[in-house]
Automatic annotation (TrEMBL):
<protein>
    <submittedName>
        <fullName>Uncharacterized protein</fullName>
    </submittedName>
</protein>
Length: 234
């Protein structure tokens, strides 16, 4: 039979993601490394289907959205903190929660909820979120300018491995490429081997607890540093 317009093209079926029921494996791999998550990488007609995918959500550790949320809430704590009343309530929720999610239109609860610092858990019990704990840590911890050395850049995963002085020299920390590029204005291919400055909670107990923000280009070498690049800045 003649086909005047050529054979119909059918896109090969992509492999489903084994960790969710809404996306392909490839979409989730890309969504984890993008602040816009899976929904932001999807055509409009499929966006409702993948919206809220757990593989790229900001509530899932080590996603780009998770890291971006930690940076945002840290800046909130440092630059535009909650009212004293709201902060007292947030601290009271740490580890105990409230018996129930009470209505409080004129009190501090609405600002805690809208910022995602608290949520209603099982049986409507009000509890602090990980974002809320990050907020309080940012209020309590000492944050200061620190030297950051870019060890390498993975453009496919959109990640950057950095070493943070004086936190743990020699121990790499992963940050997302878009954050460093946006802050410094440098393209990805100009980052490897460079020194940057940033703000960090230097006494963080683990890489997961370390929050870096405010990257800036720097030629300064921290005293006593003997990093893999021999102390030379490109």
């Amino acid at each position: 039979m003649d086909e005047p317009f050529g054979p119909e093209y059918v896109r090969p079926k992509q492999k489903d993601c084994p960790h969710c029921g809404c996306c392909t494996e490839d979409l989730c791999k890309r969504g984890r490394s993008r602040i816009v998550q899976c929904a932001g990488l999807t055509p409009d007609r499929f966006r409702d289907t993948v919206s809220g995918c757990p593989c790229s959500a900001e509530t899932t550790r080590h996603t780009a959205a998770w890291q971006a949320a930690r940076v945002r809430v840290t800046r909130l704590a440092r630059e535009r903190p909650l009212t004293a009343e709201a902060e007292v309530l947030l601290r009271s929720l740490w580890g105990v929660g409230l018996a129930e999610d009470v209505e409080d239109p004129g009190g501090p609860l609405p600002q805690l909820k809208v910022r995602g610092l608290v949520r209603a858990g099982d049986s409507r019990r009000l509890e602090i979120t990980e974002r809320g704990r990050t907020y309080l840590a940012a209020r309590d911890e000492v944050r200061a300018a620190t030297a950051v050395w870019v060890r390498c850049v993975d453009t496919s995963a959109r990640t950057v491995l950095v070493e943070v002085s004086p936190w743990e020299p020699g121990e790499p920390v992963t940050v997302f490429l878009d954050q460093v590029v946006d802050d410094t204005g440098l393209p990805a291919d100009k980052l490897t081997g460079r020194w940057q400055s940033g703000e960090a909670n230097r006494h963080a107990e683990s890489a997961d607890a370390l929050v870096l923000n405010g990257f800036r280009n720097s030629a300064l070498l921290p005293a006593g540093w003997t990093g893999e690049n021999g102390g030379e800045d490109e």
